[in-house]
Design a protein that fits this description.
The chain has three domains: about 140 residues, Orthogonal Bundle (Fumarate Reductase Iron-sulfur Protein, Chain B, domain 2), CATH 1.10.1060; about 140 residues, Glutathione S-transferase Yfyf (Class Pi), Chain A, domain 2; about 120 residues, Rossmann fold. About 50% of the residues lie in helices and about 5% in strands. The longest helix has 18 residues. About 50% of the residues are buried. The protein binds iron/sulfur cluster (SF4) (2 copies).
Length: about 450
């Protein structure tokens, strides 16, 4: 099991109110967490499964390894066993038989009336639920009876955390997120240095803690570290379009390690920080950065995590840019003439329906755009989402899953790839380099900023 960095009270501040702060890990707690997650959709999904195996054909981890243990529904076997035993007639009957019959005397195996979920089983399933699943949702799209498998995987991870069977990398990221505000341990002063660089290079002000701004801009630590050009691009575009925006010193991080690891308590703590910062500044809207997972965390899971509606709206940066385009507030000049293709982040396209917006923006600046054959809601995952990128143990599998994306890219032979998620972008860059494919990757916000019309005065019009 993981080092108990989520150990009760040891690393998490009491104010976090997390389950982990209240007691140790155990099989009993894991099973209880799984029971708590068994809602009506989960029960109906398990009872509807016709064992056709189609979900396997949609999963990059199965497709690229051919290993049946990576069949999506199989990743949920401990949860399914518990559901069958405790929520179905036949399961309960088997339980009675197991209790009443003298199995030893009858020469029957202890599993004769069905397998039991044990601590060993949860340990065995840990890599299946974390290393080989990005919660990309592609399996949910193909299931003939409509089972939302990634929804169940998100819930099954709650049981893994409570039983102490979650990956060290994700545990450490969760602790850092709760203790420092960032899963990578970044503090405001690091961002502040980057802000000064942006202001020097653009001559524009990066607004901080501006009361009543229209938009509160969130960033992701991975973006701050790997792609500082994002903040510069956004600063230029918002100045050009006359957008009222601000960063918050109280909370700048958009990603939510609690949702990735599967801890609704930690998820709620992290969402609440965003809400507190937005309410303190009285902003009308919150913008999730170029990060797919952060968007679904704040936009879809957030209100459920904190059990109340927000007094502001949430948008992904690409939605905001496309609206500015539609309103005639972004004016561009020139177009890229090399062959560009697009990787749709799963959380943005498949899970949130943001598909046309990025193509509208590509139309502004790309002369020679080609879509990957399967794109939009049926696009293939890059292989790094859902916490896989924070889990060092999953490195080899992450690369295996990337082969599907590689094959898609090879089909259309682009000169460069464009995307709008820092995790996807990092995985694309690393994967393409691993397979010695010389295809640079660029963020869409940056690409738009490169084509803004400048006024005669040298400022953006
Ligand atoms: S959500 Fe994606 S990665 Fe996870 S099992 Fe389904 S297809 Fe595979
Ligand atoms: S595709 Fe749906 S019905 Fe078929 S095995 Fe997977 S979960 Fe079950």
């Amino acid at each position: 099991m993981t080092e108990a960095v989520l150990t009760p009270g040891a690393d998490l501040p009491e104010s976090s109110g997390t389950t982990q702060a209240a007691g140790g890990f155990s099989l009993a707690r894991g099973l209880n967490a799984l029971r708590e997650e068994m809602d009506a959709p989960v029960a109906s999904f398990f009872s509807s499964c016709v064992h056709c195996g189609l979900c396997a054909t949609a999963c990059p981890f199965f497709v690229e390894t051919g290993d049946p243990k990576y069949t999506p529904i199989h990743k949920l076997e401990p949860m399914r066993i518990l559901w069958e035993q405790e929520f179905t007639f036949w399961g309960k009957l088997k339980g009675v038989l197991r209790e009443k019959l003298p199995l030893d005397k009858l020469g029957l195996d202890k599993h004769f009336a069905g397998k039991q979920v044990t601590d060993e089983m949860l340990a065995e399933w840990e890599p299946l639920l974390y290393d080989s699943c990005t919660m990309c949702g592609r399996c949910s799209m193909v299931c003939p009876v409509g089972n939302d498998i990634q929804y169940m995987i998100r819930k099954a991870r709650e049981g893994q955390v409570a039983s102490g069977h979650s990956p060290e990398g994700l545990v450490a990221a969760s602790v850092r997120a709760v203790n420092t505000g960032s899963p990578m341990g970044l503090k405001w002063k690091t961002l502040d240095v980057q802000i000064r660089h942006v202001e020097q290079s653009t001559g524009l002000e990066v607004p901080i803690d501006k009361q009543g701004a229209d938009y509160l801009v969130l960033l992701s630590s991975m973006e701050i570290i790997n792609f500082p050009e994002y903040l510069e691009a956004l600063t230029k575009i918002f100045a050009h379009a006359g957008v009222s925006w601000t960063l918050s010193q109280q909370c700048f991080e958009a990603t939510n390690a609690g949702i990735q690891i599967g801890s609704k308590d930690i998820a709620a703590v992290l969402v609440q920080r965003v809400v507190d910062a937005a309410e303190a500044l009285d902003v009308k809207n919150v913008i999730s950065p170029e990060c797919g997972h952060a968007y679904t965390a704040i936009r879809w899971e957030g209100p459920n995590a904190i059990k109340r509606a927000y007094p502001f709206k949430v948008f992904h940066i690409i939605e905001v840019l496309d609206q500015l385009r539609a309103d005639g507030r972004i004016k561009t000049e020139g177009r890229e003439d090399d062959r560009l293709s697009l990787h749709d982040p799963c959380n943005l396209a498949r899970k949130s329906g943001v598909i046309q917006q990025q193509r509208n923006l590509m139309d502004l600046v790309a002369e020679n755009f080609v879509d990957l054959k399967e794109h939009g809601k049926m696009q293939w995952c890059c292989g790094a989402g859902g916490g896989v990128s924070s889990n060092e143990r999953a490195e080899a599998l992450k690369l295996a899953a990337f082969k599907k994306k590689k094959a898609q890219i090879e089909e259309v032979e682009p000169d460069r790839m464009v995307t709008m998620c820092a995790t996807c972008r990092t995985q694309l860059e690393e994967g393409l380099e691993e397979f010695t494919m010389d295809i640079p990757v660029i963020g869409l916000t940056e690409l738009i900023a490169d084509h803004l019309v400048e006024s005669d005065e040298g400022t953006h019009a």
